[in-house]
Every structure is written in structure tokens, then in C-alpha cells.
């Protein structure tokens, strides 16, 4: 890969969502916005090797995409009214602020309640998160063709129902924010642990964008506990990023991470947000409990100092809100530290998660601690087979191969 290829790739990661969001607001059509953004990047691939990379790549792409859109409108519709509409693309700048951020507008549009929840999440991951259709299909465990149809139907419904590109009125925010938070958390998780084995194990641009947008939602709703909880959860998770990947590209387990490499500023901010919610005296929701669990982990100077009884108690509280198998799996991981691997294994073996790689990875670690090496090796094999993240797969292979040395 040449230096120019790297530059174009970086600009694509940084500018795609902003460009699509801006075009969607101006053009009122997600399909056209996505097409014009793609054409602008295709033009960049042709022009930048000859003309050089412009000083402001984002502005260059925006101008190029607008010009393409104007040309398209002129070609397709010659009526004077639409012609004036095309010209107004350059003549109607709007002030931007926290509430008027184009990407935040696009998030609320993609998360409109007229769309099914799965369609909202998939569309936002595509349009705002910049994920490919195959990546989103893997996240949903569905075929690529089915996911492509789902996204197309969602875009068509937005157009046909004339769903506005904007942030809802303040009185409507409480009813809309839950779906938005769910999507932002999924975007963050895709950055935290990329599902595509061809991608880097951690996609920092996605975690950064999810945090940025969550901050904007909190600006809109500073008293909403779950918004604050999600921001705290993201910050406390992001704080560990520098220690999560080894020099060889393997993911590093929590107990093996260099805690001196954790971002203390993010941890301090995240802890302050958790304390703010505790002081509010309101029953916490899912994100607030997860943030509190992460606060316990990041408060311990060493893995041996972790207050596992508090972690289990918090998971008990979370299970009352969400008793899904994945929540119970995570609780069992904490139980293993408190009550031992045998107790945890008995709980895990009851969970219907045969297709989930973390289930098999957790079983492998517990079996390893119990000295059942052959069973542990088989569990590692299954976890590696199911893992989509390259760093995670490398870590699991290393752990499996260490069994031979241990035995």
C-alpha cells in the first residue's frame, strides 16, 4: 500500500459519515447522498495522485459531491423549480452547533420509530458508522443479501414516509433516545472489537465517533441517566485501548494489561459520571450498571485488587433488568473469580450460546483452570473457528497452544 492509499483510507474513515450526513440533509435522499459521497471519493482516487492531496480533504470532498449532485439534478429534472433547488445547495449554509450537528441529525433519522429496531441499527451502522454490508451482516448473523435488502428497505421507507432529517423536538426526545443509544453502543462495540477479520482488531475512528455523538446526545439530555451511563461506559472502556493489543497484534486480556498505559483522564471522567448517577438516587438502567462494573475494574490497581463481590452484585442487578444469556455469561465470568471455576462452569454450561465464540473461549479458560486440558483445547478450537476479530483469534490460538507446553 502506498502513502497515498493510506491517506485516502484515513480520509475515508474520518470523513465518510460527515459527508453522507451533510449530503443527506441537503439532498433529502439517503441513496443519492451515499452515491454522491462514493463518487466524490472515486474522483479523489483519480485526481489526488495527479493534483496532490488538498489542504482540506473534507472540504474538497464536500464541494465535489455537491457539484456532482447539482449536475445530476440538472440532468434528471430540467424544470426551473428543481434547477433553483440545485443551485441553492451552495446558497443555504446553516449554522452548526451541538444540536445541529449533521451526523447527529442523521443518527436520529436512521433511528426513527417508523423503522423496525433492527433496520434502525443496521442503517445507522452503514450510514453513520461507515461499516460495510458484510460487516453489519456478521454483527446480525444474517446473510449479506438479506442485510442489503434490509438497509435498502429502510432507506426507501425514510424517503416515502418523508421522515425529516433533524433532531426531534425536545418533548419527543425521551421516546427516541433509547433506540439512538442502542445504535451508538453497537457502533462503539464494532470499534472496540472489530467483527471483520480483515480489519484492525480495534477501530479507533469508530469508538471516537460513538463517543463524540454520545456526548452530543448528553448535551441534549443532560439529566437522562442512561445517556450519562453510556458515555461513562464508553469512556471507561476506551481508556484501556492502548493496553488491549500487543506488539504482535494479539488482544491482551484484562488481567494481563499494563494498567500504567490506561488513559487516566478518561478514567477520571468516567468515574465522575458514574458518581453523578449514584448521587441522583434513581434506579439505574442497563448502561449505568455496566458503567459501574467498568468503574470497579478501572479502580483496581491490579487484577488481584478487583472487588469481585461488588462486580457480581452489580451483575445480579443487571440480570433483573436483562436476563439474556450473554449477560448471564458475563456474570459467570465474575463468579469464577469469586466462587471458583467449577461453579462458573456449571452456570455457563446451561446457557444456549453454542454459536457465540466468547461462550467457548470462556469455557476453555475455566476448563484450563480445572486442569481439563483436552476439553479446554477443543473449546479453544471452537472459539477460534467462530471468532471474527483477528486479534482475538490470535490470542485464543496462543492460549490453546500454551496448553501443550503446560501439559
TrEMBL record:
InterPro entries: DUF6596 (IPR046531), RNA_pol_sigma70_r2 (IPR007627), RNA_pol_sigma70_r4_t2 (IPR013249), RNA_pol_sigma_r2 (IPR013325), RNA_pol_sigma_r3/r4-like (IPR013324), TPR-like_helical_dom_sf (IPR011990), WH-like_DNA-bd_sf (IPR036388). Residues 176-275 form the DUF6596 domain. It holds the Pfam family Sigma70_r4_2. Residues 108-158 form the RNA polymerase sigma factor 70 region 4 type domain. Residues 17-78 form the RNA polymerase sigma-70 region domain. Keywords: Sigma factor, Transcription, Transcription regulation. PANTHER family: BLL6612 PROTEIN, BLL6612 PROTEIN-RELATED. Belongs to the sigma-70 factor family. ECF subfamily. This is RNA polymerase sigma factor. It comes from Catellatospora aurea.
